[in-house]
């Protein structure tokens, strides 16, 4: 099995007496799109800065693309790029001039740089604004320019810190679709932090949840939803042709059924501590009702996220 694209071991960062990141252990594999979640002050941005080699850890280690963020930070920055929250641009320069400056900083040959810039303008649908000063750009246009600055050096790994913050729904969807396409077409490994949990749920394959500088969750959203009610419990959603109080009582009387909740006229949520789906289905059929839908209850990422912070 290949080495993870990102790996930390007991990664720690102190600011005086404050532990911003506390013995953090996480991995991200090549080609993954991973959401990095936590409230303000949980250590997300500090972690991303350390992974880019822009902030030295107090202790512990981390590698990105096989390079140590401490001893080989220049190599890390050659294969990784970051779009920080509130990224700054040179408003008095055009979009093309901003990109040229970034490319020159990364020592990309001029001819190759110009070709790459033209390709990127086509990719993010910003070509007609290429020679417009960035000061005239909307926030959504600036975010697309920021993604171009990330991609101009053809990174293997991209870190995004609140990439959709302040964008309208249309610009948010465009940005989400672009990130998904970049991952699919270029196998770009993406680690993104966001407070917009719906966007993480739509974009990411797995989530890492950090709390007080420590990793508390690393799993797919589907698994987290399936086990939200507890590993020994299952919630099943039923949509029926009719729901009677008699049927609800019969379901409650089944051994192993812990609760039955009527959510709407024809919808039930049945929770069990063992697999009783066959007996539940038989009881519904015998009652004269027909099952139109039967599936595990899905929980939103917001529900899952808040479950880990309910005591904070």
Task: Describe the protein's architecture and organization.
- Helix content is 35%, strand content 28%.
- The strands form three sheets. Strands 6-7-8-3-9-10 form a six-stranded mixed β-sheet, with helices on both faces. A four-stranded antiparallel β-sheet has the order 2-1-4-5, with helices on one face.
- It is elongated.
- The model has no long low-confidence stretch (mean pLDDT 88).
- It has eleven helices and 14 strands.
- Helix 3 (95-105) packs across helix 4.
- 33% of the residues are buried.
- The two termini are 38 Å apart.
- Strand 4 and strand 5 form a beta hairpin.
- It is an alpha/beta fold and 312 residues long.
- The longest helix is centred in the middle third of the chain and has 18 residues, at 169-186.
């Amino acid at each position: 099995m290949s080495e993870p694209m990102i790996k930390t071991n007991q990664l720690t960062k102190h600011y005086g007496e404050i532990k911003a990141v506390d013995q953090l252990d996480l991995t991200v594999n090549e080609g993954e799109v991973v959401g990095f979640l936590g409230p303000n002050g949980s250590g997300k941005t500090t972690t991303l800065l350390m992974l880019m080699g822009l902030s030295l850890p107090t202790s512990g280690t981390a590698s990105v693309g096989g390079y140590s963020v401490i001893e080989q930070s220049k190599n890390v920055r050659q294969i990784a790029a970051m779009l920080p929250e509130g990224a700054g641009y040179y408003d008095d320069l055009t979009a093309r001039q901003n990109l040229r400056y970034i490319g020159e900083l990364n020592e990309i040959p001029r001819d190759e740089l110009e070709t790459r810039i033209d390709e990127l303008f086509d990719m993010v649908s910003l070509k007609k604004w290429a020679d417009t000063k960035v000061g005239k750009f909307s926030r959504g246009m600036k975010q697309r320019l920021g993604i171009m600055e990330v991609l101009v050096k053809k990174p293997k790994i991209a870190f995004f810190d609140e990439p959709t913050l302040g964008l309208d729904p249309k610009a948010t969807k465009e940005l989400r679709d672009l990130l998904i396409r970049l991952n699919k077409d270029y196998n770009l490994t993406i680690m993104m932090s966001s407070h917009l949990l719906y966007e993480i749920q739509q974009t990411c394959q797995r989530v890492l949840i950090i709390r007080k500088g420590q990793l508390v969750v690393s799993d797919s959203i589907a698994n987290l939803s399936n086990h939200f009610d507890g590993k020994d419990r299952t919630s099943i959603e039923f949509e029926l042709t009719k729901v009677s109080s008699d049927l609800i009582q019969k379901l409650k009387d089944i051994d192993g059924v812990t609760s039955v909740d009527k959510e709407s006229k024809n919808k039930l949520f049945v929770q069990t501590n063992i697999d009783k789906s066959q007996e539940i289905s038989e009881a519904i059929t015998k009652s004269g009702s027909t099952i139109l839908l039967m599936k595990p209850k899905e929980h939103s990422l917001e529900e899952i996220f808040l479950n880990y912070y309910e005591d904070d």
